[in-house]
Amino acid sequence: MKFPTRALLAASAVSAILLTTAPQMAGATVDATDTQAHHSRQLAKVRAATERFRLPKAAIKSGYVATPTCVQLPGTGGMGYHYASPSRIADGVLDIRRPEVLVYVPTRKGLRLGAVEYFQRDADQNLGTATDRPSLFGRPFDGPMPGHEAGQPIHYDLHVWLYKRNPAGTFATWNPTVTCPAGNHH
User: Fold this and answer.
1) Is the pLDDT of residue 152 over 80?
2) In a domain, 32, yes or no
3) CB within 8 A of 131, min separation 6: which ones?
4) How far apart are CA 167 and CA 161, in angstroms?
5) DSSP-derived secondary structure letter, 167
6) Quick one: pLDDT at residue 6?
7) CA 151 to CA 4: how far, in whole Å?
8) Which residue, 21, 64, 75, 123, could crosslink 83 as a Cys pair with Cβ 3.0–4.6 Å?
9) 66 domain-assigned
10) pLDDT at residue number 185
11) 171 occurs within a structural domain
């Protein structure tokens, strides 16, 4: 995924913050059904908060910056176009209602919101450690991973396919049903 230079510079200046949303009750066990219901309620909150971004123009109006390239991995699937919020990346605070990145997928009617992505800078910038791995929805983020382009820091990310069904799963990185236009992908 590519980030605009502004977003990369902002992300480089921020330290990562840990946040887990799994229920934490001292001395109590959490029933799997309760946990699943909790995560379903969280996903409903994300959908309610991001519904207004169905079209890219709403994201741009809210300060998200479009990347010019559609992301695809031949034989695996695609992601689409990433719209990153430099201010969300810079503040370093995970908030399920305010994802750092919105992912738009190509459709016959133009770009439509397919997924949201949470992004956190790795605090120590060391690929060999993961003591600061964040999690949301009871899922650990992918990473740490190197930046995908020059200037992007080592980071963690988590994709949530709320608007485009993903046969690989709601939290899978790649969606096998997403393809990029010829000549406009990497």
Assistant:
1) yes
2) no
3) none
4) 10
5) T
6) 43
7) 10
8) 64
9) yes
10) 60
11) yes
Q: State how many domains the chain has.
A: 1
Cβ–Cβ < 8 Å for 114, 80: yes
> What does the pLDDT look like over 61-114, one tens digit per residue?
999 999 899 999 999 999 999 999 999 999 999 999 999 999 999 999 999 999
Domain extent, residue 170, equals: 1-18+53-186
Looking at beta carbons, which pairs linking 164-168 to residues 24 or more positions away fall under 8 Å? 164/105, 164/112, 164/113, 164/114, 164/115, 166/115, 168/77
CA distances from 118 to 24, 28, 109 (A): 21, 29, 26
Compute the distance between CA of residue 122 and CA of residue 130 in angstroms, rounded to an integer.
Answer: 8
55 alpha carbon, distance to own chain's centre: 17
Higher pLDDT, 52 or 183: 52
- Residue 163 in any domain: the answer is yes
